[in-house]
Each structure stands twice: as structure tokens, then as C-alpha cells.
Design goal:
about 220 residues; mainly alpha; Arc Repressor Mutant, subunit A; Four Helix Bundle (Hemerythrin (Met), subunit A); 2 domains; 3-stranded antiparallel β-sheet; 9 helices; about 5% strand; globular
Length: about 220
């Protein structure tokens, strides 16, 4: 029971860190977390140790745990690795994709366009994840899909920032259109190429935006 509770709390705090609920360098106080999750401080210590192993927090002697600060290089490394692994997933899954899966992706893509018109970026991001998940769920290599999901989770709040940059969300929608076209003709190599273009597009936008901000300072 304790192990499952530890895992559940770990997953929740991990999601909160990756979504920006906790700020960079914010302290995670054992007593506060124990009260919040109605558990013991020993359980919270176990959770914090798991978060440290996952490179989400750093535990300093006599100071406690705080949310780790990722560098731009860290984020780029995550995105580059994700591009390679996700390209592999799309390459092996696309040739055997089912018509019902393609229909699901088409519906999600159409909804993504609607959310841009509604200026609902939060729902757009959720649909973006759902689009990719259709293919993840067809992949039998769970090690690959688990890795991609973890890398995506770690960079999700930075991805969310890029879609607020003028023109980027429209470019992202077009990239998903290109991915969908490759999947529809069941061309695994083309789908892999298109998924790389998409992730590299997000990465390059982040790099350019960071350079712009540095010039303003």
C-alpha cells in the first residue's frame, strides 16, 4: 500500500513540476507536502528521492529539496533525443496503422484547428498530446514510448511557451498536417522525417526566442 501511495504522490508532484505548478528553484518542504497528501514525512522523503533520481529536484544537505533549474542546453538535449526516439516509433508503427487510428488523428487535427480559432491554447496542447498518443499506443516497444513520454513531460512547459510566440502555433498545426499526410499513406520513413521536422521546429523556435530575450537584456 505504501509503495503505491509513494508512486501516486511521485507521479502527481512530477506532473506539477513539469506543468509549472512549482516554480524553478521553489523549495519542496517535507512537512507541507506530508500535510497536503495526508501521509508521513518518511513517504515524502521517498518521493523526493525518486524526484531527484528523475532529475526534477535537487536535495541539499540541511536545506532540503528544491525544483531543479534546467538550462537551455538541457532542454535542447531532451528535444533532440525525443526527436530521434519518436521518429523511430512513427517509422515502425506507421506502415501498420489502422484506418480507425487515422480517423482518430484526423478528428484530433480538425479540433486542433478549431482551438486555434478559439484561442484556447491549453486545450490545443492537450489535443497535441492526444494526436501523438494515437501512435504511441500502437507501439509494442514500451521502453521507447515510456522514454518519449518522459522527455515530452520534462519539456512540456517550455513547449507551451513556444506556442505563444506569434506564428508558431500555426506552424505547429501545419507540421501536424504533414505528419498526418505521411501516416495516411503509411510511409514510415516520411512520417519519421515529418515528426523530426516538427520537434526540431519547436526546438529552433525556443532557441531563437531565447536569443531574442538575451538581446533585450
Amino acid at each position: 500500500m505504501r509503495a503505491s501511495k509513494t508512486t501516486a504522490i511521485f507521479q502527481q508532484i512530477k506532473a506539477d513540476i513539469n506543468s509549472g505548478v512549482y516554480s524553478i528553484n521553489e523549495k519542496l518542504v517535507e512537512a507541507d507536502l506530508a500535510a497536503q497528501y495526508e501521509t508521513s514525512r518518511n513517504t515524502i522523503r521517498s518521493v523526493l528521492s525518486l524526484l531527484e533520481k528523475d532529475d526534477l529536484v535537487i536535495i541539499e544537505p540541511h536545506k532540503g529539496a528544491k525544483v531543479i533549474s534546467l538550462t537551455l542546453k538541457d532542454i535542447i538535449n531532451f528535444m533532440d533525443l525525443r526527436a530521434e526516439v519518436e521518429a523511430y516509433i512513427f517509422r515502425i508503427v506507421t506502415p501498420s496503422i489502422e484506418p480507425t487510428d487515422i480517423q482518430t488523428m484526423e478528428k484530433i487535427y480538425a479540433s486542433m484547428g478549431e482551438k486555434i480559432e478559439d484561442i484556447d491554447f491549453q486545450e490545443y496542447s492537450a489535443l497535441n498530446h492526444a494526436f501523438h498518443n494515437v501512435v504511441y499506443q500502437k507501439c509494442e516497444n514500451t521502453a521507447a514510448t515510456d522514454l518519449v513520454k518522459d522527455l515530452s513531460s520534462k519539456s512540456s512547459k517550455y513547449y507551451a511557451k513556444t506556442i505563444l510566440i506569434p506564428g508558431r502555433i500555426e506552424a505547429t498545426l501545419n507540421e501536424h498536417k504533414n505528419i498526418l499526410e505521411a501516416v495516411k499513406v503509411k510511409d514510415g520513413d516520411l512520417a519519421a522525417e515529418r515528426i523530426k521536422e516538427h520537434i526540431h521546429g519547436v526546438r529552433d523556435t525556443l532557441i531563437e526566442h531565447n536569443a531574442y530575450l538575451n538581446q533585450q537584456n
